[in-house]
Every structure is written in structure tokens, then in C-alpha cells.
Design a protein that fits this description.
The chain has about 120 residues and is mainly alpha-helical. It contains 5 helices and 4 strands, in the order αββββαααα. Pfam families: Choline_kinase (PF01633).
Length: about 120
């Protein structure tokens, strides 16, 4: 993560919370709830989407090809690091903001906690 985030010139405007409840599809795709939007590495939003969608390898290649024109334009090792970072941020969000005792978040909290161990 340090390596890919060291170059601040790569920061772009990101949504920073592209979970499925913030995406609306109605003939077009709309992103809502921009509370956490700001500058970030472009892989952050991509990693968030890929984690949320739980795609197969072929579907990931198709997604990246559609996004960049070629899946080879993305550093897959760096993207994998960002996918892990997104999971860690989600874990921290549940611990700090939500209640890990809340039924809505309990299972996800336990799943993320197990993954982090």
C-alpha cells in the first residue's frame, strides 16, 4: 500500500463508499451518498466495487477491460492490496461508527475479524 500510495500525483476524486446500497441502476448507473467523497487513489473505488460484487476472475477481467480499455492497464498486485485495504477500512468503520452488536453488522464484523486474524 505504501508503494502505490507514495505518488500523490495519482490522486483522483473518488466516491470512497461504493457499496451496493450507494449504486442505483435505472437504465443508467447512478452513484449516491457522496458524504465520504474526496481525493484518493483510483484503485480504492475499483477495489470497493470488486469486493462488493464478488466477481469471478473472468468477470473481473471483463470489468477492468471495460473500465480501462484493457485489464493489463491495472497493476493487479496493487489492486489486490487495495481490496484488502478496503476490507480493513470496512472493519474499522463497523468497530468505530456502527455497532458490532447491531444485528445488521454483526455477521459482517465477525467475517472481517476472522479474515484479519
Amino acid at each position: 500500500i505504501k508503494k502505490v500510495t507514495a505518488d500523490k500525483s495519482k490522486l483522483v476524486f473518488c466516491h470512497n463508499d461504493l457499496n451496493l446500497s450507494n449504486i442505483i441502476y435505472a437504465e443508467k448507473i447512478y452513484f449516491i451518498d457522496w458524504d465520504y467523497a474526496g481525493l484518493n487513489h483510483p484503485y480504492y473505488d475499483i477495489a470497493t466495487l470488486l469486493n462488493a460484487l464478488d466477481l469471478s476472475q473472468d468477470e473481473v477481467k471483463y470489468f477492468l477491460n471495460s473500465y480501462t480499455g484493457t485489464h493489463n492497464a491495472i497493476d493487479l498486485d496493487a489492486l489486490d492490496s487495495f481490496k484488502k485495504l478496503v476490507l480493513y477500512v470496512e472493519y474499522l468503520w463497523i468497530v468505530v461508527t456502527a455497532s458490532k452488536e447491531d444485528e445488521k453488522y454483526r455477521d459482517r464484523y465477525l467475517e472481517l475479524k476472522k479474515w484479519l486474524q
